[in-house]
Amino acid sequence: MSAEEQGAHGRPSRRNLLGWGGAGLVLGAGAGAATALALDDGDAKAAPAAAVPFHGAHQAGIATPVQDRLHFAAFDVTTSERADLVVLLKEWTKAAARMTAGHAVGEGAFGADEAPPDDTGEAYGLSPARLTLTFGVGPSLFTRFGLEDQRPDALEELPSFPGDHLDKARGGGDLCVQACADDPQVAVHAIRNLARIGFGSVAIRWSQLGFGKTSSTTPGAETPRNLFGFKDGTNNIAGGETAALDQHVWVPEKDGPAWLAGGSYLVARRIRMNIEVWDRTSLREQEDVFGRTKRTGAPAGKLAEHDPVSPRAMLPTAHVRLARPAAHGGHRILRRGYSFTDGTDGLGRLDAGLFFLAYQRDPRTGFIPVQRELARHDALNEYIQHVGSALFAIPPGVRDAHDWWGRALFTAPAKD
Amino acid sequence: MSAEEQGAHGRPSRRNLLGWGGAGLVLGAGAGAATALALDDGDAKAAPAAAVPFHGAHQAGIATPVQDRLHFAAFDVTTSERADLVVLLKEWTKAAARMTAGHAVGEGAFGADEAPPDDTGEAYGLSPARLTLTFGVGPSLFTRFGLEDQRPDALEELPSFPGDHLDKARGGGDLCVQACADDPQVAVHAIRNLARIGFGSVAIRWSQLGFGKTSSTTPGAETPRNLFGFKDGTNNIAGGETAALDQHVWVPEKDGPAWLAGGSYLVARRIRMNIEVWDRTSLREQEDVFGRTKRTGAPAGKLAEHDPVSPRAMLPTAHVRLARPAAHGGHRILRRGYSFTDGTDGLGRLDAGLFFLAYQRDPRTGFIPVQRELARHDALNEYIQHVGSALFAIPPGVRDAHDWWGRALFTAPAKD
């Protein structure tokens, strides 16, 4: 154990052993904590203090059991030099591997006295908190850096949907990083350090904090409630459903392009909820709008949350009826959305809602047709407004310590 | 157990027993959870899932061990009828007592089908998470409702300090409620339901979410780090230090007015941190600015966080040196600040910082003289900006089920 891993009183502290020690210790402690916390955690199999492996065939943060908190950032690339961007992506990958393991960005934690610290320090002493960092590239990146030929056909700006009230400042982005963790300080620390490392090459375009998960990817777990007080997206794809993930989430090699095989597409929508109007609506109206019982989350006419949906038991405009996979050729998406509250608007209303995040194999068969239908007919539209929108391609996992975010893209041979 | 406390599968769930069942169960489960969580919790004696008693001589949420998350709201009173305001305060108190015990606002949880639900529902199934709701009144309230004579001399708008860049929309307020909990969904639910109940009588003027506590009120606990990566406010008043609380936090009867005896004063300051500038400053400069070692939190020249401060070991402009009680006649304040990150500003910088909350017996001997000194000389001023400000008087505790927030104030005899 190095000097910087000593506790405040000059001896190794429990917190340091948990958070900034070796990976073996981290996992050991995490497994112990899991049992105790399961009482209060929808994803009972998750170990809140543990580290999630960074390397693998797919990026972590997609099929990973959903963590409690989110900090999401979209970046503009401000350098015009491809080489600078590649250097940054290598540095980011190295930092991400360290932070997700519960380490400081730099090996000496704070580095030399004369230099800015290698790590900003606010997560020093905290556990890894199951931090995952998931990296993506937006359509706008492909107009520069010689990447024109590499843009997948599916990666184009989402179409306008009826009722959209999009704020350009809350949408788009050349790159994105989704930081999820069970401790918000750990997620915020990660995004802030990536932004710091990227100074001069990238700048944050917009970012979003999520304080409560609204989805579960653990089979049989109760779905967390959104700010309308409802369980929504009950029939999510579970992290262990390999066949469903292969069919609906991961981009197969045959879909192309080659650099995206094993990756995915991420749709991000900032959905403002008209909380004050909703709160003055009757329980019956609320349940009719969703097509679910508020108390149990059961679909209309059923008893339990996970009972199958009976479309005929609900109104034609019910949210669940319109959004169900059976109405869309069986295509499914994996949801990882979070509730947000960003203070109050100029009219004294809470600026609150759902930051919708969904992973899918192809947005043209995933989000887009479902949203076309919802935007036209969903009874929920009276109470929500889509105010931010972005689409990103999510490369496959970083395979080992030599691999880096975007390597396959930046080393892909030019077409023809 | 009533029907609404059944779990999703029609049987009583563990989550419901924890959160929405009887108080005995709540406390029992909480005590068990505390042991397991202490590993990762600065306030080792706190039981994260348990309920904090609502009734008492002082309001909870001041000397209570600091919870992990905050939602703070300031309200304008929009009704001009004193009677409406009194009715609201009674309703608020009843709802606060229920929510802090882990119950829904209404006894039937969601109420009748034909009416808007008595509770918005997003905390249904969650534990009380040590929720506290702390109520205060601002100077502006005393210009109306026949309260002119009741304003304490100490309750006037804070003076301007050099360097203040206050946004009026982020300051002031007739009333305030501080919601602290170990689960942000529980804190947000509480503020949202109070705002809902208050519709027509009050409106949220501004609100602030805090995602990470920066203070501890537990003796010997490590101080959490702020977004500069430092431990600050190490020598806080602990929740059990009865003599220090009596001397520095609670308003004694002899200070007056009578309705405030056993209460306190709360200073709230939104302090934006220039994160990007700070992150490019050398470790030595950062440590000189605070007068503390970044790694351990030890004061300059010392080894451990809780070692006594040696002013001569640090620069005359060091934050710790200027702020220490010994430089201010021994007057102390109780800090309960939280880190915030509210997305990104128009220049791509994180809108992040410290939401400073401090309780004291009298702001004229507490916050004001310390801030006068800091505003003039603190080396930290290069990296921070005060952008929001408010002062509230915090009435004493609600004594029992017949008492209500502000009762002593609204029933005080006029001062002829």
TrEMBL record, chains A, B:
Domain of life: Bacteria
InterPro entries from the UniProt entry: Dimeric_a/b-barrel, Dyp_perox_C, Dyp_perox_N, Dyp_peroxidase, EfeB/EfeN, TAT_signal
EC number: 1.11.1.-
Cofactor(s) listed in the protein's UniProt record: heme b
Free-text cofactor note: Binds 1 heme b (iron(II)-protoporphyrin IX) group non-covalently per subunit.
Keyword vocabulary terms for this entry: Heme, Iron, Lyase, Metal-binding, Oxidoreductase, Peroxidase, Signal
Subcellular location: Cell envelope
Top EC group: oxidoreductase
Main location: other
Domain Dyp-type peroxidase N-terminal residue range list: 59-211
Limits of the Dyp-type peroxidase C-terminal domain: 223-398
Reaction(s) catalysed by this chain's protein: heme b + 2 H(+) = protoporphyrin IX + Fe(2+)
Family: Belongs to the DyP-type peroxidase family.
PANTHER family in alphabetical order: DEFERROCHELATASE, DEFERROCHELATASE/PEROXIDASE
Biological role stated in the UniProt entry: Involved in the recovery of exogenous heme iron. Extracts iron from heme while preserving the protoporphyrin ring intact.
Protein's name in the database: Deferrochelatase
Source organism (scientific name): Streptomyces evansiae
Lineage: Bacteria, Bacillati, Actinomycetota, Actinomycetes, Kitasatosporales
